[in-house]
Amino acid sequence: xxxxxxxxxxxxxxxxxxxxxxxxxxxxxxxxxxxxxxxxxxxxxxxxxxxxxxxxxxxxxxxxxxxxxxxxxxxxxxxxxxxxxxxxxxxxxxxxxxxxxxxxxxxxxxxxxxxxxxxxxx
Length: 122
What we know:
Elements: E1 14-23, E2 26-35, H1 39-60, H2 64-75, E3 76-80, H3 98-109, H4 117-121
Antiparallel strand pairs: 1-2, 2-3
């Protein structure tokens, strides 16, 4: 019974996502700290992707940036490594580049794991 592997849910803990970004030949270590997305957060993320695909039609595709931004804004607790101006600390999420939000959310969501080959075939 002790050999059973249980999938970690990480409930209540902060999740640190680290990005290494290069700009003008300089590398920056950026850290985005999230709370674990709950079921409602994930439903909103995936429903936003489905809705934007239907609205945009087959020519446009899904709005991954928009869906990622919504999830980021709901779950991000703080970001480190950015030179935020002191007067805008309250609104720091609006200052984080959209691409950084998208990259961080992709890494956050990858924590859900992936299906093994057997399950994909079924």
